[in-house]
Amino acid sequence: MKNVFFGLALKYDDGVQTQVAMSGSGTIVEVHKSQAFDKLWYHVGSIDKMNVNWSRSVEYDSGVTPSVAVNRQNRVVEVHKSEWNSGLWYRVGTVTGTQIHWGTSRKYDSGVRPRVAMNDAGVVVEVHESEWNSGLWYHVGRLNGDSVNWAGSQRYDSGGTPSIAINSHGIVVEVHKSEWNNGLWYHVGRVNGNSISWGPSLHYDTGASPSVAVTDDGNVIEVHQSQAAGTLWQRFGKINGDRIDWVGGAVNFDDGATPSVACASNMAIQTHQSENFATLWSSTSLIVDRASWMQDNLAALQDKTLSTLTVGASHDAGMYLGDSFNLFGKTQDLDLHGQLSNGIRYFDLRPLWDGSDFYLYHGSALIKGPKLFVVLEDIRRFLEEGHRELVILKFSHYKDIDDAIYKKMTQMIQHYLERWLYRTLPEGQRLADVSLGSYLARTATVLAVCDGDFPVRNPARGIWVYRDWESPTAAQGDLRVFDQYANTTDYEKMKNDQLTKFANYNGKCKVDPNLPCDQFLLSWTLTPITAVWLYSKEANRNLGAVMAGLKVPNQHDCIPNLLYVDYVEYARATDVAMFQNNVAHFGT
After folding, report:
1. Residue 220 CA, distance from chain mean position
2. Is CATH 1.20.1600.10 correct for 10-282?
3. Nearest to 543 by CA among 562, 557, 556
4. Which of 212, 304, 337, 463 has the CA that lies 20 to 30 A from 222?
5. Residue 325: predicted pLDDT
6. Cα–chain-centroid distance for residue 210?
7. What predicted TM-score, i.e. pTM, was given to this entire model?
8. Residue 240 in 3-state DSSP?
9. Domain 291-580, second-level architecture
């Protein structure tokens, strides 16, 4: 099922009261107020894989609470309130390159906190609060040159902080906060001449400062701020008549305040203000079914091999229990089913035998995670749902395991995953020679690879030998991976270390240049003694931007194969990987 996840945002400016819009041609327009004065500014931006290339900030007017809309023809409508009184004003402009050529600023009504949306047919819808009470009002307008022909203002509900979106079919979605409490409410409607035929007002959540976007095929994306803390939440749903079928509940994606959301085609963007400072931040998300991204794009991916494919990879994938702030062993939020559903396809699993059962663990302090059978059950549950995906399970860092216990572990893996384990290689081929189309010819496939000498001494059907690129026994490896982490808590040092290693990576093993190294693991992780979550945030915020600017392939015609991260969803590793595999493009 399609969904969004914005992950952690990057700073792009200083200011407050940000609002964002996106057109079907990929143009992004953002407006905000100066943090110190009632000056209004705009940015023009463009999508660059999972990154946004923002132009410089340009002052265009004075006022407060600006809002903006842009359509495929690069026509822009902006609304705001006067800084002096309750007058509401609008401007029409045209994006040319990184600039907007504006028409005259015109007053159209009175009120507070206006929000505007527009579709490609030039239908403009606006909502605002009354300046006198809790009444909510709307206008329908038609773009006409450098002006809007507005119909009269009509009351439609009571509440506060409304937001509105419209698609090319004239379907309108509106969200607002209750005037009495922290309840959030929505309407679905349809433009009918100069009016909107509204459905009922329906409660959907609690929070503050909601914002909404809608796609032409009826997907709804909503973001809001927590009513009690500086956290940001997202929801995803599908229009069903005059209602929205929400997919699950609200999901936290970042910290911040007063978010705004926009979408077009298969891409969404959110902007927000910092929860503590007058700084502005943005992030993007594909609108995609991550649980089946390989299956859905198999026609384009079928000839790729492990050496030419990029996937999201989970560091210490089993360490998802406990409190991120107090337990240094925790590296993930999602269990294995959740990580698989998020599109992650490579999992670092570290087994420990405690004398009676297998656990996954982390670090020299032997912090225990879940039992191994729980993780294997999660993987089996995902595969039984029918997802035709390639999953790589890498077992290493064994603790208190000998040959007899290792055999017991492989028997457990076989018991849970026998139906999907890859068992037989074509004559003369290695795992990295097999195409994705062959791996997924009939069903999902699991590649279970084990490090160390155990798999050599104790061969088991469907269990393959893993070797690091510099291992003296690399020749034994069924799968050979370049895996060298930076071993630092400094983001810049880690970034430079990993990018330098990738630039120099030549696809050969260190011990014998005649042996091919199958995959490059980009270890986008920091290594603190405690609170991995806090250190992971900067790395995860920057993954999309760094990958957008990375020269791929490198001078040796190699690519980064494994985007290895903590807290995988916040790095948007799957979305980044889809762009690297050329199966995600704006507009598809």
Report:
1. 16
2. no
3. 562
4. 337
5. 60
6. 19
7. 0.97
8. strand
9. Alpha-Beta Barrel (3.20)
